[in-house]
Design goal:
The chain is an alpha/beta fold and 567 residues long. It is 31% helix and 14% strand. The relative contact order is 0.10. The model has no long low-confidence stretch (mean pLDDT 96).
């Protein structure tokens, strides 16, 4: 089957500031990424998703863009980016960029012009409104805390921001805004970029009449409730309140019309892909007219990945996809806890990490991996607030300090570290040397380095260890690449065992049985599968297909002689 490249590919997210410091200033850059392209090729990935590389005042770690058609000076130059893109393509590695559509930085020239006067031609490029009764236009909140409206005394009006006040929302109902943003999209596509991951697509529009929300609690109260929530019902209640609070600010129907228009722009350049930061299946459109891929975030929204959880997720997710749509799976990114910290049990963390990787690479759909997971990097919960770089963590810290009844002030920094995103963005650990080889000795990296690099959590040590997590990643990526059923096959669940997840991947030319023992106990299964089994891979045996599985075993077998009506 001749599938589009993005259906067969494994994507690897690079957080540029933390990936590789090429010039020794403590900040990752394109010089560093260029030097590591052979590492990525050897790892076995097919495509790179690059988190924002644009000029930015970095109030929100680069998601506050000040120029959509350039490169942040600390990362390099536009010429160096083009060299990176050319070298990646020479190695058959595709590259997609983060595209922030909802807002710009308040330092973007468009916004500086917009706020300069009420009569400026770009005034309507953002959402400006008069105040009401001596306050903001309505009672909407920013998802990052406080009012969604910021007063600007120079023009005596408020501007709207769904995120931080330093990130004013663009007015996408203005045709000039669309034209300018589509020009930026074409700029990168003409250069040869292979597509975009779209940031926060659901927040692009808000209701025009600015009707007020009627949630019975304030945003601060809702955050406090979320900290206190322990049971599933308490957590579900906070989610219901959040949707009540923000229902006029997210997921409006107009977003889908805009995505269809963006799809037409991207389709001017054959073979490019759009990936949405959304779990909403509606963004697939009819399967051919909106986004190519949307993340299956519900798969990762649990404390422990179990067979029952995966079966339920796949049943719900795959049954709702429109014809022609393709799934997309991940268990981690720059905004969420690292896989090892999120899903581990404190005793079998690395075994669980291997099984979870195998899960992502064997389920139907395009896998997305996050840099550093391949060596088992974990969350680094440093508590020196002066070293926090994520404003969200700082916001949480200040909120918690203002509620001493909720938490001991001495614990506030630790809880803020857990709630913030610095923990999963620390520099990648390349060697067992000072700064983990990310930056030279005597240079302070932009975020603290997790000290566990000295306990083998680094690339160099794991390169030399055939049993390392890094080499397991390489093996599993090779297995996926060599077996067409893992890239193109349909998913068919088998069995209901509480510890072992079993399923078939069925393609025209191959049928594979996948068994993942997700427990610390040996399990015997009685699976009825068509045909004869031939071992493709096992993490615990070199031969044999007996249905007895060791703790945390990853098992793949090809089924031979399968009747046509069962293949």
């Amino acid at each position: 089957m001749d599938l589009p490249w993005w259906q067969k590919a494994v994507f690897y997210q690079i957080y540029p500031r933390s990936f590789a410091d090429g010039n020794g200033d403590g900040i990752g850059d394109f010089q560093g990424i260029l030097a590591k392209l052979d590492y990525l090729k050897h790892l076995g990935i097919d495509a790179i998703w690059l988190s924002p590389h644009y000029p930015s005042p970095l109030f929100d770690c680069g998601y506050d863009v000040a120029d959509y058609c350039s490169v942040a000076p600390e990362y390099g130059t536009l010429e160096l980016f083009e060299q990176f893109l050319e070298e990646a393509h020479r190695r058959d590695l595709r590259v997609i960029l983060d595209l922030v559509l909802n807002h710009t930085s308040d330092q973007h020239p468009w916004f500086l012009e917009s706020r300069s006067s009420r009569d400026h031609p770009r005034r309507d490029w953002y959402i400006w409104r008069d105040g009401k009764n001596g306050g903001p236009p309505n009672n909407w909140y920013s998802t990052f805390g406080g009012s969604a409206w910021e007063y600007d005394p120079a023009t005596d009006q408020y501007y709207y921001h769904f995120f931080f006040k330093q990130q004013p929302d663009l007015n996408w109902r203005n045709p000039e805004v669309k034209a300018a943003m589509w020009d930026a999209v074409r700029f990168w596509l003409k250069m040869g970029v292979d597509g975009f991951r779209l940031d926060a697509v659901g927040t692009i529009f808000e209701v025009e009449d600015l009707r007020g929300q009627k949630a019975p609690v304030s945003h601060d109260e809702l955050l406090v409730m979320s900290y206190k929530a322990k049971t599933r019902e308490e957590q579900a209640q906070t989610e219901r309140l959040w949707h009540s609070m923000f229902k006029y600010q997210v997921d409006l129907p107009e977003v889908h019309d805009l995505m269809k228009e963006l799809r037409r722009v991207v389709d001017e350049f054959p073979g490019r892909v759009l990936v949405g930061e959304t779990e909403d299946i509606r963004f697939y459109g009819n399967g051919r007219d909106e986004l190519h891929l949307n993340f299956n975030f519900p798969l990762m929204e649990t404390r422990r990945i179990t067979p029952a959880w995966v079966r339920r997720n796949q049943r719900r997710r795959l049954s709702r996809l429109p014809d022609g749509a393709w799934p997309c799976n991940t268990l981690g990114n720059h905004d969420s806890p690292r896989m090892l910290s999120r899903f581990g049990d404190g005793e079998h963390d690395r075994e669980i990490a291997r099984v979870n990787l195998a899960l992502i690479l064997t389920l139907k759909g395009t896998p997305f991996l996050y840099n550093g997971e391949e060596i088992g990097m974990s969350d680094y919960l440093f508590t020196d607030v002066s070293k926090f770089r994520d404003q969200l963590g700082i916001f949480y810290y200040n909120l918690l300090k203002s509620h001493p009844d909720l938490v001991d002030p001495e614990e506030a920094a630790l809880i803020a570290a857990r709630g913030g995103r610095d923990k999963c963005r620390t520099p990648l650990q390349w060697e067992n040397t000072v700064n983990a080889g990310f930056s030279p000795e005597g240079v302070e990296p932009w975020l603290p380095v997790n000290p566990d690099y000295a306990q083998g959590v680094n690339v160099a040590d794991q390169e030399a260890d055939q049993g390392s997590l890094l080499n397991f990643y390489r093996t599993m990526l090779r297995i996926r690449r060599e077996n067409p059923a893992l890239m193109a096959g349909e998913y068919e669940p088998l069995g209901t065992d509480a510890a072992c997840l079993s399923f078939l991947r069925i393609a025209e030319e191959q049928t594979l049985l996948v068994v993942l023992n997700m427990s610390e106990k040996k399990r015997r299964l009685n699976l009825k599968v068509p045909g004869q089994m031939e071992l493709v891979f096992s993490s615990h045996r070199s031969q044999g297909t007996e249905m007895v599985f060791e703790p945390f075993e990853v098992f793949l077998a090809e089924l031979r002689g399968v009747p046509e009506n069962q293949a």
